[in-house]
Design brief:
Largest sheet: none
Low-confidence stretches: none
Radius of gyration: 16 Å
Distance between the termini: 32 Å
Order of helices and strands: HHHHHHHHHHHH
Helix content: 55-70%
Number of domains: 1
Shape: globular
Number of strands: 0
Structural class: mainly alpha
Strand content: under 5%
Mean pLDDT: 90
Length: about 200
């Protein structure tokens, strides 16, 4: 096992964003819990009606215990609080900016779907991120452990995996770029993982 690669995966920009929000111990001012309400609503709606277009109104209606327009736009859209895209831009590295550019959307519903994918994929991510090796990857290769995690997630969440044109969870894109030690552009990493999801569908 390469200590360095697991350390690198442990401090990715999206990983740091996720952990910073999800580890908030305050029950009164916990924006992560609000995000989860809307992530779960998106996941439930896509599972129940895979072909049905989502709108902010349908998502608010499905949010439990109670959704509303104001909290929806606190979670989704260009002015959302603690958005994943904002952290990528703030990081300022070439990789983070490229991922932000690829995942930044004008439609807040699509933006919310992208974040929902990260939240949903996270339990599948952690096992490989903690044991990943440094295999000296050939160009464009998707490591077996990442591929297996992505496919397991897609089997468990087929409608969510297919949403937004099979765009993979942004954290998986960042991980693949990290595993390639900067030799694979984030845009190409996104394309490779999109192919994996499309071929599995």
């Amino acid at each position: 096992m390469s200590t360095r690669i697991t350390e690198d995966l442990g401090r990715t920009t999206i990983g740091s964003w996720y952990i910073r929000l999800s580890d908030n111990p305050s029950p009164r001012r916990n924006h992560w819990q609000t995000k989860i309400i809307y992530y779960q609503a998106v996941a439930d709606l896509l599972t129940a009606s895979p072909g049905r277009p989502l709108t902010w109104k349908t998502i608010v209606g499905a949010a439990r215990p109670r959704g509303c327009r104001s909290t929806f736009y606190e979670v989704a859209g260009p002015h959302a609080r603690h958005g994943m895209i904002g952290d990528l831009i703030a990081d300022g590295s070439a990789r983070s900016i490229e991922i932000a550019w690829r995942y930044r959307r004008l439609d807040p519903v699509e933006q919310l779907i992208d974040e929902t994918k990260v939240w949903s994929f996270w339990p599948h991510r952690q096992p490989y991120a903690e044991v990943a090796t440094d295999p000296q990857l050939a160009p464009d290769t998707v490591p077996d452990e990442l591929r297996a995690a992505l496919l397991a997630w897609a089997r468990a969440n087929p409608a969510l995996a297919a949403a937004n044109g099979y765009r993979p969870p942004a954290c998986a894109v960042e991980d693949l770029a990290v595993m390639h030690r900067g030799r694979l552009a984030a845009s190409r990493a996104e394309g490779r993982l999109t192919e994996v999801l499309r071929q599995a569908h």
